């Protein structure tokens, strides 16, 4: 439990912070991959061409904005998309960003 | 006609460019004000606390991303939200960003 990093409550989600997280294409890809998988994905299993330290930074930005929840399973850090909470705070936003039309652009 | 600046076609709209335009709070406010008005607004009539040159830059970024269309009426530069074209390219995106829930955050 001590290794679980802090996460914001839904009441703390801010549109500016969420958009700053989602404007980065690597971070948006992490969100899109989690949404498509419909399941948790461990940090090392994402399709992304960045260094491990850069990836760690991107996960931290997403976590602090409220987009993902992180927890450990053994030595693997697992990532969960906080879809329902995001939908509550920003109805339609993740739907719009993960739509086939948006993905094609 | 010669004073009308260039505008991208819908086929040229890109998600990355649109999000980079919308991540800025002043630019997002311009879009929100146009959406709320449901009518064209001239550059000088927006509620925003930035210099004229900064405002001009923000309008240019929005125009080049495809979010607004600009045209002259006499000496006034008028701004039109390209709502239908944005909705075609990115269904639900402007709805999500202009929703009361998102606005409250």
Percentage of residues in strands of chain A: 5-15%
**Which structural class matches the secondary elements of chain A?**
alpha+beta
Please tell me what the overall shape of chain A is. globular
Strand order of the largest sheet of chain A: 1-3-2
Low-confidence runs of at least 5 consecutive residues of chain A: none
Radius of gyration of chain A: 13 Å
What does this entry look like structurally?
2 copies of one chain form a homodimer. The first copy, chain A, contains 6 helices and 3 strands; from the N terminus they run H-H-E-H-E-E-H-H-H. With 105 residues, the first copy, chain A, is of the alpha+beta class. Chain A is globular. Chain A has a 3-stranded antiparallel β-sheet.
Key phrases:
homodimer; 105 residues; alpha+beta; three-stranded antiparallel beta sheet; 3 strands; 13% strand
Short synopsis of the structure:
2 copies of one chain form a homodimer. Chain A is of the alpha+beta class and 105 residues long.
Q: What is this structure's SSE topology?
A:
2 copies of one chain form a homodimer.
Chain A: H1 15-22, H2 25-37, E1 41-42, H3 52-65, E2 68-73, E3 76-81, H4 83-89, H5 93-98, H6 100-103
Antiparallel strand pairs in A: 1-3, 2-3
Helix pairs in contact in A: 1-3
């Amino acid at each position: 439990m001590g290794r679980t990093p802090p996460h914001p409550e839904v009441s703390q989600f801010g549109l500016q912070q969420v958009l700053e997280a989602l404007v980065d294409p690597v971070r948006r890809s992490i969100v899109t991959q989690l949404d498509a998988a419909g399941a948790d994905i461990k940090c090392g299993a994402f399709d992304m061409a960045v260094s491990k330290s850069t990836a760690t930074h991107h996960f931290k930005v997403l976590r602090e904005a409220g987009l993902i929840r992180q927890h450990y399973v053994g030595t693997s850090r697992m990532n969960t998309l906080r879809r329902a909470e995001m939908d509550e705070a920003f109805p339609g936003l993740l739907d719009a960003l993960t739509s086939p039309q948006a993905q094609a652009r």
